[in-house]
């Protein structure tokens, strides 16, 4: 089973900085999210946009990881386009694209945030746990959409078939995101999460 472990400490680490283009992109997206949230007609959209802005600020203050920040900003931009410019209704494939892409990007961000804090006997065990975690988050999102539809007569959830399609796209996007991260983006701290055979046998 995955075990919690303390992240490795460094004596002196240079504080990461966002490239100026990424910084402008992030600020513009945050302002757009704030506008969409303030002008939204339902609580689900307001809550989502507010949580997005506060999450970005909190992550940058505590973590300062450019990969996580840019990934989160891309996800927020997708929501801004979907709700603010009504892409969900104007473009028939946008909702499917959003679920797949958001799952791919978000899972890589979560991997960067949390993967190095746990250890397991095999990488597969950690990565499956990460995948299942994202499926849980996706399920909570679908519950939030359904609840908004019931309480405020919104149309975030388009029925059973749409919900199942969203869940399958979440699963596929997350799996591909995990594969991309582990093959190309993992850090030395991530590699240390897999216990050597001698340690795992104890």
Automatic annotation (TrEMBL):
Top-level taxon: Bacteria
Write out the entry's keywords from A to Z.
Answer: Membrane, Transmembrane, Transmembrane helix
InterPro entries, per database record: YjdF-like (IPR014509)
The organism encoding this protein is Aeromicrobium tamlense
The name this protein goes by in its record: Mn2+ efflux pump MntP
* One Pfam family this sequence matches: DUF2238
Question: Where are its TM segments located?
Answer: 20-38, 67-85, 97-115, 122-141, 167-185
């Amino acid at each position: 089973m995955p075990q919690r472990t303390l992240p490795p400490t460094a004596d002196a680490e240079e504080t990461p900085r966002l490239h100026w283009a990424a910084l402008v992109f992030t600020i513009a997206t945050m302002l757009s999210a704030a506008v969409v949230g303030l002008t939204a007609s339902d609580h689900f959209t307001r809550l989502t946009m507010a949580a997005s802005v506060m999450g970005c600020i909190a992550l940058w203050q505590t973590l300062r990881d450019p990969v996580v920040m840019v990934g989160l900003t891309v996800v927020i931009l997708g929501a801004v386009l979907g709700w603010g410019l009504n892409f969900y209704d104007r473009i028939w494939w946008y909702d499917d694209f959003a679920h797949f892409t958001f799952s791919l990007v978000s899972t890589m961000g979560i991997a960067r945030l949390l993967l190095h804090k746990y250890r397991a006997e095999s990488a597969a065990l950690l990565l499956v746990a990460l995948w299942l975690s994202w499926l849980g988050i996706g399920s909570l999102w679908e519950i939030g959409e359904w609840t908004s539809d019931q309480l405020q007569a919104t149309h975030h959830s388009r029925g059973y078939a749409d919900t199942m399609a969203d869940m399958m796209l979440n699963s596929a996007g997350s799996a591909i995101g995990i594969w991309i991260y582990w093959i190309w983006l993992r850090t030395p701290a991530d590699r240390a999460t897999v216990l050597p055979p001698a340690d795992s046998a104890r």
